Amino acid sequence: MKPCLITGEELSIADVYDVAVQHRPVELAREVAEKLAASRFMVTRYLDEERVVYGVTTGFGRFSDRVIAPEDRRRLQVNLLRSHAAAVGDPYPEPVVRAMMLLRANALAKGYSGVRPVVVERLVDLLNRGVVPVIPSQGSVGASGDLAPLAHLALVLIGEGEAFVNGMRYTGGDALRQVGMTPLVLEAKEGLALINGTQAMTALGALAVEQAGWLADWADVAAALTFEVLRGIPEAFDPAVFAVRPHPGAITSAAHLRRLLEGSRLTTRPGELRVQDAYALRCIPQVHGAGRDGLEHVRQVVERECNSATDNPLFFPDTGAVISAGNFHGQPVAVVLDYLAIVLAEWANISERRTERLVNPALSGLPPFLVRHGGLNSGLMVAQYTAASLVSENKVWAHPSSVDSIPTSANQEDHVSMGTTAARKAHLVLNNLRRVLAIELLCGAQAADLTGPELLSPHGRATYAFVRRRVPFWEDDRVLAPDIERLAEALIAPEGLEHLSDVLGGMSA
Fold first, then answer.
1. From CA 226, how far away is CA 65, in angstroms rounded?
2. Alpha-carbon gap, residue 150 to 167, rounded angstroms
3. Which of 41, 171, 348, 458 could form a disulfide linkage to 433, CB 3.0–4.6 angstroms apart?
4. Backbone φ, ψ for residue 377 (5° rounding)
């Protein structure tokens, strides 16, 4: 696999996913060392001149007016990491931690943080040698950046904290020894540079955005299968409808549906069974498409943040300026990740409504709960209950975090973003959506069996087969949970992405 080249400028969300999940190797671009040396020279010059520079010759936060003696400046950086490593809760999964390390390295590689090249090189070494710092998932307020989680990350670089290597948990020092690394001795400003940024929320956001793009396509695929077996009226997806209200996402989803339904012998004409469909069928492109447009905005913001300098202070070698400002504030990311949770929740919301139409005989014309011998068998009755529970839960998680703020650091940091909470919520909604779509697909395939899978469109038959390779026909009641989980996992596995490519072709997101 070709290495991911870190320049500070060109990292994509797909790159983040590949490094975090696929363990793609990482390299620093040649020009990075020169950029880092220029800003580091400014730090050493200011130290020689004994200038007062926040975080270099002073304390942090409320202590920014406390000048630190020269002999204590290394100790200051270590104390910063130790005192700020106050996160709690379950550790982040390995992909999230790997994404955090990649993004922190990329932010430092821009050359505005005043660190030596060795600091960035050591982050890259952790990635390439499989060292995964133990980072508890709760405790960041999202300004001044993700201080607590990034402190846990940085501790491992100096041989403290804890880390996983090959699935085994070690102290930071032992983890480094396992891979032939030695602890890094931090110089002035470097501890602050490692923790002052938005890389926890952005890492979570990047991974969520990548999966959300796949689930956007799966939502269209699941909806198309449901639409067929419920004998919907595809006239609602005519291109003329979307030409007069040209939202890009709706145009994309409508085009997907037209492709997926082409050749179906189940869809109907207006007046054949009904004049028009219920909203959960007729308005699929409008609802799915609004989410697609929202997701595109989220993607742009998160990708921009992946390539941003989020440190404080920032050193500008071209002008000689050192500026204390607020690029560490997570509000830009917090707002869009709240938005992402809403987008995902609405895709799940309308999917559950389609599932209800599938299992409800008054709405589907099919056997109750999609089972032939009802009464003795409950069929897929409780599959809809589960979807309803997940959708209800999503409505709680969709409440925005970014509208909350609790002042910190003795009111010096008097407005915070809660962006990492927004990011963690988005992942909860994402996982719920995946299961809700799996339930719809499961019910859609069962309905197809009762209707006649040979009547489905070619792409509908392919989706039916995808489900049936993982979940057998429901003849008699069995434990349903493993079926849901197996199908939900398949949606984001390589075979799920291959199926999207097959049925959507070049139209896939």
1. 64
2. 21
3. 348
4. -110, 140
Cβ neighbours, 10 Å, residue 185: 13
* Adjacent-strand bridge partners of 26: 4
Residues of the chain with pLDDT under 50: none
Which amino acid, one-letter code, is at 55? G
pLDDT at 509: 52
pLDDT at site 63: 74
pLDDT, tens digit, for every residue of 418-476?
A: 999 999 999 999 999 999 999 999 999 999 999 999 999 999 999 999 999 999 999 99
484 in Cβ contact with 386 (< 8 Å): yes
Beta-strand pair 136-138/88-91: antiparallel
Fold of 204-507: Fumarase C; Chain A, domain 2 (1.20.200)
pLDDT of residue 334: 97
Q: What is the DSSP letter of 68?
A: P
pLDDT of residue 49: 82
Domains of the chain, residue spans? 4-197, 204-507
Predicted pLDDT of residue 287? 98
* Overall size of the chain counted in residues: 509
* SS3 label, residue 454: helix
Q: Are 289 and 249 in contact (CB under 8 A)?
A: yes
pTM: 0.95
Q: Please check whether residue 306 is in contact with residue 202, taking contact to mean a CB–CB distance below 8 angstroms.
A: yes
> In sequence order, what E strands does 8-59 have?
26-28
Cite the active site residues. 54
Residues 6+ apart with CB under 8 A from 193: 108, 113, 114, 115, 119, 311
Q: From CA 300, how far away is CA 302, in angstroms rounded?
A: 6
Own/partner contacts of 312-315, CB < 8 Å, gap of 24 or more, are 312/54, 312/55, 312/144, 312/192, 312/196, 313/53, 313/54, 313/55, 313/56, 314/112, 314/113, 315/39, 315/42, 315/43, 315/112, 315/113, 315/114
Strand partners, 408: 413
Per-residue model confidence (pLDDT) at position 51: 84
Helix (H), strand (E), coil (C) string for 320-389: CEEECCCCCCCHHHHHHHHHHHHHHHHHHHHHHHHHHHHHCHHHHCCCHHHCCCECCECCCHHHHHHHHH
Burial profile 21-59: b = 16 or more Cβ within 10 angstroms, e = fewer: beebebebeeebbebbebbbebbeebbeeeeebbbbbeb
CB 174 within 8 A of CB 184: no
Which residues on neighbouring strands pair with residue 315, listed in sequence order? 322
* Cα–Cα distance for residue pair 368/371, rounded to 1 Å: 7
Q: How far apart are CA 100 and CA 202, in angstroms?
A: 8
Hunting for tokens 């056997």 — which residue is that?
367
